[in-house]
Amino acid sequence: MEDCRDPLLIVDGLSVTFDTPRGAVAAVRDVGFTLGREKLGIVGESGSGKSQTGRALLGLLARNGRMSARQHSFDGVDLLRAGEAERRALLGRRISMILQDPKFSLNPVMTVGEQIVEAFRVHAGLSRREAHDRALAMLEAVRIREPRYVFDAWPHEISGGMGQRVMIAMMMVPEPDLIIADEPTSALDVTVQLQVLALLDDMLARRGASLIFISHDLNLVASFCDRVLVMYAGRVVETLGAAELHAARHPYTRGLLACQPRVDGDGADLPTLHRDPAWAR
Amino acid sequence: MNPAASIEVTGLQVAFGRGRRAFHAVRHAGFSVEAGGSFGLVGESGSGKTTVLRALAGVLPPTAEVRGRMRMHGEPLETVRPRALRRRMQMVFQDPYGSLHPRHTVDRILGEPARVHGLDSIGSRIGEALTGVGLDVSFRFRYPHQLSGGQRQRIAIARALIIEPDVVLLDEPTSALDVSVQAEILNLLQRLRRERALTFVLVSHDLAVVSHMAEALVVMRAGEVVEMLDVAALRTAAPQHPYTRRLLRASRGYDRAAASEF
Questions:
Q1: Fold of B1-81+169-174+201-262
Q2: What's the angle, vertex CA B208, arms to CA B207 and CA B211, rounded to 5?
Q3: Which of B42, B175, B180 to mutate to test the interface with A (most CBs of A within 10 A)?
Q4: Residue from A161, A136, A160 nearest A149 by CA
Q5: What's the DSSP call for residue A269?
Q6: Average pLDDT over residues A19-45
Q7: Are strands B75-76 and A77-78 parallel, antiparallel or unpaired?
Q8: pTM of the full predicted structure?
Q9: Of A45, A218, A261, Cβ closest to residue B212
Q10: d(CA A59, CA A210)
Q11: In chain B, what are the domain boundaries?
């Protein structure tokens, strides 16, 4: 096995710009980080550029988007110099993405089981029969109580939590080294969210895979991840160890933490965030 | 003002459809809210919390079968309600993008309820409604798409308050907003409640929001109230029912050990 301390992903000077009728809009500006075998959270409010950062890593930008970077390498392969075919093969096989709403990520006219079977046939080249057995085993692995029932179900027949478990099962099929999850549990109830995250956590640990977890929920990310990048106006304004969240120094991070209501709060007016134009510079 | 309970719900049941295929969205719900109080309905999806709020507001679809008793200031809340009674209760919805007509100006959005209820001097009421929710009067001739999420929710609140209700029903009023905007809207709602002696019934999946906004709450699950408690009990983590305790634990963030117990 190779040296585990080698970073899996290196990003430096990543920028994403969208061409709009009213001129170019910079969504991500000069973002850089190094990812090891870890769970890295990217946190920010809407428009902070967190989702576009995640999408840019996979080259999944809208047609009017452009990305540039000084460095972008995955497991030693320089993605800026790699050809399109090499890049796609690498990204498709070794990086998976989980999005917020399983309703839009699953194919609505294909049963749940058929979709996992297809993933196994494409990624692992299995026969129909083997793929069928592995798909059922996968549904069991994500702790779906009646895998046979869910296998034959259509996406609209299953709940949000179940759908997200199915997505996790599918994303695990290619045995990726990196999973990019964009608000994977934001549409779920809190108790279900906890169960889905536990599942993801166990899967990552079993395969030694890394995670980039994109979310608006600072407390959730800090409790789940090892490290957190805080984004504001397209930039990373602060990087923190998850355990040091409450020692955050940047006024934006501190403001975000302070303005959240707390179960054990006193009901007094919440502090509001006063944005300093200098943060965006 | 009536010193007694502002809102009283007893033995509420709501079913959709009939016979064996009926879906019982609310199996049993009861609570009362003092005039000027703020009361929370907490639960996960499918708990029936929003259906209770919609039953109170009288906006359930006609196919819904409602049983039990609902009263406001002692007057029964029937399916068909006199206009004077309707005027005393207004609702603010979750999604500020979906609840404002995209092709109506703010002026029309705010003016319409005032006109429906036969109020006079509508122009000055619209101006006051805007400043009351912290928006400049220049917002009057804008369209919803020209506003941010927080501004839209302010307009939705202004629309509810323009006819001067005394009860406001809030359905997840901040769950579509960023936390920094949520703080502003929650502060605004609390200020309006104090200034206008409003009674709030607030539906939320977020225990922290309810703890911040309400004095008492019920926790609902699968159409039933599992526990009624004071916010003081919630803040000191003393809820009795295991489901409430589980919700509380889950709301604190990720905890691998807690997840195995669910």
A1: Rossmann fold (3.40.50)
A2: 85
A3: B180
A4: A136
A5: P
A6: 95
A7: unpaired
A8: 0.90
A9: A261
A10: 18
A11: 1-81+169-174+201-262
Q: Is B256 on the interface with A (CB under 8 A)?
A: yes
Long-range contacts of B235-240 (CB under 8 A, 24+ apart): B235/A263, B235/A264, B235/A265, B235/B211, B236/A264, B237/A263, B237/A264
- Name B81's Cβ contacts closer than 8 Å, sequence gap at least 6: B58
* Residues whose CB is less than 8 angstroms from the CB of residue B124 and which lie 6 or more positions away in sequence, other chains included: none
Report DSSP state, residue B102. T
For B148, nearest residue in chain A (alpha carbons)? A46
**Tokens at B212, concatenated:** 């911040």
Q: Report how far residue B234's alpha carbon sits from residue B229's, in angstroms, rounded to the nearest whole number.
A: 7
Residue type, position B102, single letter: P
pLDDT for position A5: 59
Question: pLDDT, tens digit, for every residue of B66-101?
Answer: 999 999 999 999 988 999 999 999 999 988 778 899
Question: Measured between beta carbons, which residues in chain B are less than 8 angstroms from residue A224?
Answer: 253-254
Q: Which CATH number fits domain A9-101+178-280: 3.40.50.2300, 3.40.50.300, 3.20.20.140, 3.40.50.12780?
A: 3.40.50.300
Question: A interface toward B at CB cutoff 8 Å?
Answer: 45-46, 160, 189-195, 197-198, 201, 216, 218-220, 222-224, 255-256, 259-265, 267, 269-273
Q: What are phi and psi of A239, to 5 degrees?
A: -120, 130
